[in-house]
Amino acid sequence: MRRQLRWAFDNCEVVLAGDRASAAAAVAEHRPPVALVDLGLPPDPDGPTEGLATLQEILSIAPETKVVMMSGQTEREYAVQAVALGAYDFYQKPIEIDVVNLTIQRAYNLHALESENRRLARSKTGAVLPGVTTTNAEMLRICGEVKRFASANVAVVLIGESGTGKELLARATHELSEKAKGPYVAINCAAIPEHLLESELFGHEKGAFTGAVKTTVGKVELANGGTLFLDEIGDLPMSLQAKLLRFLQERVIERIGGHRQIPVDIRLVSATNKDLLKLTETNEFREDLYYRLSEAVIKIPPLRERPDDAVVIAHQLLNSFAEEQGRSITAFTADALASISSYEWPGNVRELQNRVKRAVAAAAGSKITVTDLDLPSYEQPAPSGTLREYREQAERTALTRAMVEAQGNISKVAKLLDVSRPTVYDLMRQHNMKV
């Protein structure tokens, strides 16, 4: 029967399995849109138990797969039970190829429609933010979070390694908020000595201390009606943590040496490369302040987890620096692109900027090489995950590199990938990519 069905569906890629174990392995590897499963399977060919167990295992591995159950048993309760467990449909033998074909086609069409809906949902919630360049699925999701939090009046903490783009997301949060017309004021808590930081934050009155020859307005007050961005908030001294907490609770400040309470209305966004919650456990950061600051927490992945972004950002930087330096360089060599996507980037985007800018200045030819970037040669990593996942990642990487090399020219992309233009457009829709 399996051989006959494969012959009947010669327009499809058909994978055969004879028992539950082999079916589970095939589903894990191929993630099929549709599975046709007999209710009677060994070791219980005359009963429903093994078929129903196979149905449940398939759906646990690939919930999006549409499972069509078929059986020669006439008991209606089995059909009801199968559908209750998640089967898409139940087909009663004997087999009529045209009817089965129609059932499979309907299941396949539903799977395709649901996949498209998921893609559109990701696209809607993952719109790229002002100043942010990304094609990475996780970063697109984060951009969607930033948009949602920006429209709400909540304090946001951005957590990520140095150079991952925390300030870009902070500025985007401001520009998309109701306070976008107000000022955006940033201060690095780690860059200012502790004895000057309080004055920098809250300001001081004339004569408040030696050298205070005039009244100075602090950054908190300057941000009134807008957004205050506190970078490296994990380095804020404990003495100032208490004063910042008091301000967040009462929304008023007093300048150093002053006695007048000044009301301030700001949106607060903070950033750090430290684990603030862990710092609260060691009493290095106030727990009450942490919960005031972290009404929304956004964790930004490092560049090494976004190899597709590394390539796209590198090309954007290349165009910018080439124009700035008056160089006629518009591309990377193939091995340079491979090294960019495989390199670990411990310094994240800042390191990428540094290497590309230096390479544009040092390049002897019309393209930037691995040597110009001073990067190690690329070594192909061992594949991980399912075959389908590996294929999708490889497909996305190839499409991204071709888009970069062709500078968005679809005809050139098609030529580089040796496919038709419609295929390129299909791939772009599938991977949520734009020119």
Walk me through the structure:
This protein has 435 residues and is α/β, with parallel strands linked by helices. The chain is 50% helix and 11% strand. It has a 5-stranded parallel sheet.
- What strand line-up does the widest sheet have? 5-6-9-4-10
What is the straight-line distance between the termini?
47 Å
What shape does the CA trace take? extended
Structural class: alpha/beta
Descriptive labels:
3-stranded parallel β-sheet; 50% helix; 435 residues; extended
Write the layout of secondary structure elements.
Blueprint: H1 2-8, H2 20-30, E1 34-38, H3 49-61, E2 66-71, H4 76-84, E3 89-92, H5 97-125, H6 137-150, E4 156-159, H7 166-175, E5 184-188, H8 194-202, H9 219-222, E6 227-231, H10 238-250, E7 252-253, E8 262-263, E9 267-272, H11 276-281, H12 287-293, E10 296-299, H13 307-325, E11 331-332, H14 334-342, H15 348-362, E12 367-368, H16 370-373, H17 387-405, H18 410-417, H19 421-430
Parallel strand pairs: 1-2, 2-3, 4-9, 4-10, 5-6, 6-9, 11-12
Antiparallel strand pairs: 7-8
Helix pairs in contact: 2-3, 5-6, 6-7, 13-14, 13-15, 13-17, 17-18, 18-19
